[in-house]
Amino acid sequence: MADSRAIGIFDSGLGGLTVAKQIMSLCPDESIVYFGDTGRVPYGTKGVDTIRKYAAEDIRFLLGKDVKMIVAACGTVSAVAADAGKDLSVPFIEVISHSVKDAAAATVNGKIGVLATPATVKSHAHKNLIEKLMPKAQVFETAAPLLVSLAEEGLYGKKNEIARLTVEHYLNGMKNMGIDTLILGCTHFPVFRELISDYLPGVTLIDMGLSAAKYVKETLEKTGSRNTGEAHAHYFYVSDKPVTFEKTVKIFLGENAEDLKTDLVDVEKI
Ligand code: DGL
User: All domains of the chain, ordered by start, with CATH?
Assistant: First the structure.
């Protein structure tokens, strides 16, 4: 049975747009309702109880938009608050487990790096899953909180020296570990892909958004809930509109940002 309702996607801010972009590209007939909690970003440096509360509010907001599926496009929520997505009336998709499967398939030497937020690294969510799949794997984790702020500010181009130095600062310890695969364990980080590849040449970078998007597509097909009619417009909701918002969204989404419809919402009051 076809289902024309939108897919709900949320993140602490604009980083989840890297996931939305992958979903838009693999599932071009689907409409998206995106919520970016730009007023409360970052999540990744906050305590687990706060992240859980925020995740529950974000999900409640999206359910109110009558979505057919919810994607937690946030590594931090997926790592420490995936419980918030249990027992929903619609499928809930997190971003960690699918990226781990892709990393396990990609690695040749079994040495995998994880670059994520402090909360995600502290949870060892990727590491625990990798070790279940590949007991002999060696996993190296690094928290890179400043990269989240740089991405939200739109400071991530290949020519941006601040971004380059920050990437090098965080990956310095991992550089000589011999990893052949690195999971970009925060959905803000794919925008630093070029800088990371320059610093770690030859290392396969796993984009959690792409891994999750493949699973979203598979789930829509399996449950017969693809949209077979005309796609509606995408809607974006944010809890704050930073000054650089329009520019940053356009950089994140590229041509998908045409006719952007954005509204401000206070999810705590909903
Ligand atoms: N983009 C999010 C993640 O994947 C959160 C970054 C943050 O809010 O700290 O972890």
Answer: 7-94+210-269 (3.40.50.1860), 96-208 (3.40.50.1860)
Residues with C-beta less than 6 Å from any ligand 1 atom: 11-13, 15, 41-44, 74-76, 117, 120, 148, 186-188
Candidates 74, 148, 167, 212; catalytic one: 74
Q: Among the residues of 124-207, which ranges form H helices?
A: 125-133, 145-152, 161-171, 193-199
β-strand pairing of 69-72 with 7-11: parallel
Report helix, strand or coil for 117: coil
Residue 233's pLDDT band (boundaries 50, 70, 90)?
confident
Token output for 3: 């289902």
Report CA(228)–ligand 1 centroid distance (Å).
Answer: 32
CA atoms within 13 A on the CB side of 201: 1
Scanning 8-95, the segments in alpha helix (DSSP H) are 17-26, 48-63, 75-80
Exposed e or buried b per residue across 91-103, where buried means at least 16 C-beta atoms within 10 angstroms of its C-beta: bbbbbbbbbbbbb
Asked whether residue 1 carries a pLDDT value surpassing 70, the answer given is no
Element spanning 106, H or E: helix 96-106
Residues in the chain: 270
Mean pLDDT value of segment 109-114? 98
Q: Which one-letter DSSP state was computed for residue 68?
A: S
74 is annotated as an active-site residue: yes
Residue 249 confidence (pLDDT): 83
Q: What is the pTM (predicted TM-score) of this model?
A: 0.95
Instruction: Supply φ then ψ for residue 15, to 5 degrees.
Output: -55, -35
